[in-house]
Each structure stands twice: as C-alpha cells, then as structure tokens.
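Lab notes, practical 5.
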Amino acid sequence: MSDRPAGVSQGGNMPKSTIVDQPDRIPNGFIRTWPSPPRSRRLGAFTIIEILIVVVVVAIVASLVVPMVSGLGVTQLRSAAQMLVADLEFAQMESMAHGDDARVVVFNAATETYHIGTQSQPTIPITNPVGNQPYLVRYGQGRGYHLDQVTIDAFSLGGDNQVAFGLYGQLDQTTPATITLGAAGLTVVITLDPMTGEASVGAIE
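Output from the prediction step:
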C-alpha cells in the first residue's frame, strides 16, 4: 500500500488544484505569502496645512503673551510711581520738620535703588518709621519685591543724583526735577515742581 497522501503523485508534486481548493493546508516546500501593506506616502514630512496650523497657533500664543507682559509693566510702573511719590512727599515733610538737616532722596541707577538720607550724611539711609529699617527701596526686594520689572532709566536732578528739599518744601534747583522709571518697554516720568516740590506722574507710554 502506498503511504502517499491522496492526490499526491509519485513524483511528490501536488496538483495545483489542491493548493487552490484547500488554502489552509500548506504542503511542505510551499511558503504562504501575504500582500505587503501599502507604503505611506508621508515620510516624516509636514504638509503645508500642518505648517500653517503651527504658525497660527504660535501667533495666537504670542498675541496672548504680549498683552500680559505689557499689562504687567503698566501695573508695576503705576505702583512704583505711587511709591516714589509717597517717598518724595515723606522726604519733603521731613525736611520741613528738620530744617537744620534737610532730607535728600538719592538715586542709583546702577543698582536700581534709591534711599532717603540727610544732607549731612546723604549716603546713609535714615530709619524708616514703618518697620524701623533703613529707608532704602530696591526694586524686586523688600518694599519693592513686587516691582521686579521696574528700572530707574534716567533722572535729571540739577546735575547730581539727589533730590533735596528746603525748609519750605522747595527744591534746591530752579528747574523741574524728573525721574524716569521703566518696565516691559514702557516708561513713566515723575516730575517735581521746583517752587513747591510737588510731584506729578506723567502718562505711561
């Protein structure tokens, strides 16, 4: 009796009809092949639409960030100007109360600071009655901790870096004194009247 499976000829070749009629039975010597998946036409490149979407998203984010930064600058400049005016008024009142040793407000643009001293010792800050600390303002620290964006951009104080008040509150110069503060690309100018010593705050620009 022959041991060959039915349908297999003596030569060991299986008829083609057997392969077609019984696809799940793979005889020895045959390898089933599967169709290759279609190759993607995108090889890591970006389409024009995707690039445009990214550009639009970046523009939207930028439009949100710029007003936030500008708004922060306006807020800090307004607060810094109000603080400076209050300190100038305090120095003026102290000068009127201490005519023998008037107060001066000394500015240092390099360190972004100013302090209130006396005419006899202008480099040494007086004691602030609130907190009993040296009357010194440094933007980003202490009283000015919330004004970390503010800078002292310029000042015109009669040729030096001090604002000095007389016994009647007047300035020690005949021209207006100005101090310019900046933050986030914006500036504000504080002007002091030479006759009265009164301070006024300009527009934030």
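Observations recorded by the TA: The chain has one domain: 50-201. The mean pLDDT is 80.
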